[in-house]
Amino acid sequence: MIITCKKGIPETEINKIIQTIEAKGLSVHPSKGEHLTIIGIIGDTTILDEKTLEANHYIDKITKLSAPYKQVSRDFHPEDTIVDVAGIKVGGKENIVIIGGPCSIEGIEQIDRIAGQVKEAGATMLRGGAYKPRTSPYAFQGMQLEGVLAIEAASQTHKLPSVSELMDVDKVEEFEKHIDLVQIGARNMQNFSLLKAAGTMTKPILLKRGLSNTIEEWLMAAEYIMASGNKNVILCERGIRTFETYTRNTLDLSVIPIVKKKTHLPIIIDPSHATGDWELVESMSLAAIAAGADGLMIEVHDTPECAWSDGAQSLKPDTFKVVIEKGKVIAKVIGRDI
Ligand code: PEP
Ligand code: MN
Q: 228 CA to middle of ligand 1, Å?
C-alpha cells in the first residue's frame, strides 16, 4: 500500500502517520522527495482501515499495489535511485557509466595491464571475474581469492572501482572487503540464499537478468535484495534465451524503458554476453545508450584469441575506445554524457 501525502505536509504529521502504522506491526518506507512525500507500507495491509487513514487531511490518496514487488516499484519511490559505486554515480541523469575489463582475471599482470588500457579508453569501472560460473566443470573456474586481490590492486592503481561476480554465500565477507560493485550473475538470479546474503552487504549489487527469466521474476529478485536491507541495486540486462541461435542470447533492449517505468533502479546493458560476438558489441552498445541505459558492461581483452574465457565476444582496447567515443555522440542526443 502507498500513501501519497499532500504537498507541504509537516514533518511532525509524517511521523505521526508512520508511528500509527508501525504500531500495527507493519514496516514503513517513507520517501521524501522534493515535490512529493510517499509512505510505502509492507506487510499485511488488510488490517489497515483506509477510510480512517483518509480522514487525515494531510493524506492525498491511498493506493493498493498490484505488482508483487514493492520496494523496487517506482510507485513506492517515484524519484530515480542513484547508486554510488565508490564515488561513481549510476542512474538518474548522471553520466552513463562504462565498465570494461576481461571476462576472467588471468593474473595480477593481466588485470593491471587491461585496467590501464580500459582507463585510457575512457572506462569508469573495471570488471573481471575471479569466480567463474562455467557450463563445464572442466573449464577454467577462475583464480578465486587470488583474482579478487588482483582486481582490487588494479582497481586501486588505476582508480577504477572494481566489479566482480559473487557466486557463494560463504564469500560475502571477502567481497564486502575487496570489491566495490558485487555482481550476481545470470545463473544465480534466483539463488534466493545468495540474494538474501547480498541484501545484508553494504556494497552495491549488480543484478543480472537470468537466462530465461521474465521482467517480473527479475524485479522480484531485486526485491529480495532490497527487502534484506540493501537498497543499492543496479539491474543488468545481458540477453535472454530465445529460439535464435545466431547470437549467444537475444538482447532485450525493450526492457530499458519498461524497467525505467516500473522501477526507480538504474539499468545497464551487457552487450558482450548478450551477443557472444565482438562484431555486434558496438551497434548494441550504441542502441542501448539511445534507449536510455545508465551504463554498459563490455568485455575487453588485449589478446582475445588467447583469453581464458569469452575471447570471441571481447573487444580489443582500441575498438572499445571507438565504442565509447561514438557512445558520447549518441548520449548527447538524449541529453546525457559518458
Ligand atoms: C559475467 O559477466 O562474467 C557473466 C558470467 O555473465 P552472465 O552471468 O551474464 O552470464
Ligand atoms: Mn564472460
A: 23
Residue 232 lies in a domain: yes
**What pLDDT digit, counting tens, does each position of 51-101 carry?**
888 889 999 999 888 788 999 999 999 999 999 999 999 999 999 999 999
Q: Residue with the nearest Cα to atom 10 of ligand 1?
A: 186
Domain-located, residue 14: yes
Ligand 1 midpoint to CA 252 (Å): 16
pTM: 0.93
77 lines ligand 1 (CB under 6 A): no
Backbone angles phi, psi at 273, to 5 degrees: -70, -25
In terms of residue numbers, what domain contains 41? 2-63
Task: Work out the number of other CB atoms within 10 angstroms of the CB of residue 272.
Answer: 29
287 and 178, same domain (yes or no)? yes
Could you count the other beta carbons within 10 Å of the beta carbon of residue 338? 20
Q: Residue 301: nearest ligand to its CA?
A: 2
Domain-located, residue 313? yes
pLDDT digits (tens, 9 = 90+) for 267-299: 999 999 999 999 999 999 999 999 999 999 999
